[in-house]
Amino acid sequence: MDPLFRFRQVSSSPLFGTAAGEAFRERIRTGKILALCGIHDAFSALVAAKRFEGVFCSGFGFAASQYGLPDIGYVGWRDIQDLAGRVRHVVPDTHLLVDVDDGFGEEVISANTISQLEAAGVSAVMIEDQKRPRRCGHFEGKQVLPRGRFAKKLKSALAARRSLFVIARTDATDMEDGLKRAVRYVEAGADGVMVEAVHDLEIVRRVVDRTDAPVMVNQIQGGKSPNWTVQELQDAGVSIVMYSTPCLFAAQYGMEKYLDALVETGALPDEGTTTMNECVDILYSPPDYYAAPGPSGGAGNQRRGGG
After folding, report:
1. Which structural domains are found in the chain, ordered by start?
2. How many Cα atoms sit within 13 Å of 32 on the Cβ side?
3. Rounded to an integer, what distance in angstroms lies between the CA atom of residue 59 and that of residue 38?
4. Residue 14's pLDDT is what?
């Protein structure tokens, strides 16, 4: 495993309120790239948090897993607030970045979204400059707001937070326009910046050189960006890399393979699956919750699972 993924300096205490944003900023200041794993629910967050310092609440993943719909604007601010709250509950000491799309509306709505998420213990958010109807950043047909119009929305969002780390994302399809937008958004106060669906690492280097803020890159299987290694991104000056949908795509792949085998054999296959106890072992629970009562009614057998 690449040692960059194992650089885990998670907090020794729960990351709630302003502490989450402050811890995220401190981690970025180390100068070592921060890898975030995209998740779509609390269970995938538990799996990812054992391997990554931080997780990313993906709008694509949420729309697919919770609604069975594509990422074309169905998700609302309350959906993401509820997801973030559930995730923070089970991974209290893990950096948490949340996708807030375009803020889910005009300035008053996006500002409320930012405020609510910070109160829920979110470390950072990513807000984009798309014009509605919005869609996944790697889909065709995207439109963006005028630079000044989004800069105004961004400033409103920034004014609503205390220490939450705010990453401004541009969905400009012309990379030169994307570079100019990245510069403009950092000047407007964004803590970090990302040019979505970037296809050339040289563009990433130019964004790093032109902006005085951490730069993030998104990696999605089958997307428009090449599959760069974390070392290549680190060498290009990238501060954050998010893998937006690996849990969702791996879950689909695993389910399809396993269920095909089940249908073919007529019995539960032993290969390609975990066991009940292996599943229960990673779940978040209070101490001794699964312990069998002892003779005096106290905690006894610590073995988890059971019928």
Report:
1. 3-247 (3.20.20.60)
2. 12
3. 10
4. 72
Cβ-based neighbour number of residue 303 at 10 Å = 10
Give me the pLDDT at residue 286, please: 58
Q: How far apart are CA 25 and CA 123, in angstroms?
A: 9
Please report how many Cα atoms fall inside a 13 Å half-sphere around the Cα of residue 98, on the Cβ side. 35
Output the 3-class SS for the chain: CCHHHHCCCCCCCCCCCHHHHHHHHHHHCCCCCEEEEEECCHHHHHHHHCCCCEEEECHHHHHHHHHCCCCCCCCCHHHHHHHHHHHHHHCCCCEEEEECCCCCCCHHHHHHHHHHHHHCCCCEEEEECECCCCCCCCCCCCCECCHHHHHHHHHHHHHCCCCCEEEEEECCCCHHHHHHHHHHHHHCCCCEEEECCCCCHHHHHHHHHHCCCCEEEEECCCCCCCCCCHHHHHHCCCCEEEECCHHHHHHHHHHHHHHHHHHHHCCCCCCCCCCHHHHHCCCCCCCCCCCCECCCCCECCCCCCCC
Structure tokens at 260: 């095909």
What tens digit of pLDDT does each residue of 204-231 get? Answer: 999 999 999 999 999 988 888 899 999 9
Nearest C-alpha neighbor of 97 from the set 127, 62, 57, 60? 57
Structure tokens at 92: 């209290």
pLDDT of residue 301: 38
List the Cα angle 129/203/154 in 5-degree steps: 20
Residues 123, 18 contacting (CB under 8 angstroms): no
